[in-house]
């Protein structure tokens, strides 16, 4: 059971994420949900908010992981800066996701295009972002002991290195286990939801600008 949850599921989620991005690219170039006349001003504000906040949250977690030791936090100055940035970026991202997802859920003319996975996206994204704040300010972490580094970061590093260590998560506090499972679910579902093009569309447009026209086959929608 431990191997299934903390090894098989994460790799399966990454595989589902990659396959989903290939499918969306071929299906609609990631332009099916976040563009067109059905997108109102509120949703456009939400798109801008997510594009401003989500990359910041990701970079914060990446820097925190790279700057942490096996059991220690980043240096005090870096730690304070990351915490402040995260406290600002998380509410912006959650608000943006809500502005994108809530209007289609209540508008009769587009409700039929809302899938069950879309309905899961808002609570999952909010849970992922809020759990990040919870583990960042966990009272069980000290200057010489950083529970996130001992559990989540060690687990992620082991998966990336292809030497998975499920024990660090199997014995982690419940909030860390819950955060790990939330992230696995979000990674697996992301390309199949309305938010798939949030970061991918700007990346595709940048690629289109950088790659000469004869050598690309990027959708032009």
Keywords, separated by commas or semicolons:
221 residues; mainly alpha; 8 helices; 70% helix; 0% strand; globular
Task: Please give a structural write-up.
The protein has 221 residues and is mainly α. It is 70% helix and 0% strand. It has 8 helices and no strands. It has helices at 2-28, 41-67, 76-106, 116-136, 147-160, 167-170, 174-189, 197-210. Helix 1 runs parallel beside helix 7, helix 3 (76-106) packs antiparallel against helix 4 and helix 4 (116-136) runs antiparallel to helix 7 (174-189). 29% of the residues are buried. The model has no long low-confidence stretch (mean pLDDT 84).
Task: Please outline the helices and strands.
Elements (H helix, E strand, L loop, with lengths): L1 H27 L12 H27 L8 H31 L9 H21 L10 H14 L6 H4 L3 H16 L7 H14 L11
Helix pairs in contact: 1-7, 2-3, 3-4, 4-7
**Largest sheet descriptor:** none
Average pLDDT for all residues: 84
List unreliable stretches of 5+ residues.
none
- As a whole number of angstroms, the C-alpha radius of gyration is 19 Å
Overall 3D shape:
globular
Helix-strand pattern: HHHHHHHH
How many alpha or pi helices? 8
Q: Helical amount among residues, as a percent range?
A: 55-70%
Regarding quaternary structure, how should these chains be classified?
Answer: single chain
The class by helix and strand makeup works out as mainly alpha
Beta-strand portion reads: under 5%
Number of strands: 0
The end-to-end distance, rounded to whole angstroms, is 45 Å
């Amino acid at each position: 059971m431990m191997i299934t949850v903390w090894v098989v599921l994460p790799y399966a989620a990454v595989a589902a994420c990659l396959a989903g991005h290939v499918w969306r690219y071929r299906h609609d170039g990631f332009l099916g949900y976040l563009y067109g006349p059905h997108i109102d001003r509120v949703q456009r504000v939400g798109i801008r908010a997510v594009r401003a906040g989500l990359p910041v949250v990701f970079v914060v977690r990446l820097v925190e992981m790279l700057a942490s030791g096996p059991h220690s936090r980043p240096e005090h100055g870096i730690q304070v800066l990351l915490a402040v940035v995260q406290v600002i970026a998380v509410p912006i991202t959650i608000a943006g996701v809500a502005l994108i997802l809530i209007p289609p859920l209540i508008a009769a003319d587009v409700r039929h295009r809302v899938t069950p996975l879309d309905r899961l996206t808002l609570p999952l994204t909010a849970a992922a972002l809020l759990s990040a704040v919870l583990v960042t300010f966990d009272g069980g972490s000290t200057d010489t002991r950083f529970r996130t580094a001992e559990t989540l970061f060690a687990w992620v590093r082991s998966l990336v290195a292809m030497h998975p260590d499920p024990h660090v998560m199997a014995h982690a506090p419940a909030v860390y286990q819950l955060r790990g499972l939330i992230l696995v679910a979000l990674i697996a579902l992301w390309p199949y939801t309305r938010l798939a093009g949030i970061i991918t569309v700007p990346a595709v447009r940048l690629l289109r600008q950088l790659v000469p026209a004869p050598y690309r086959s990027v959708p032009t929608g």
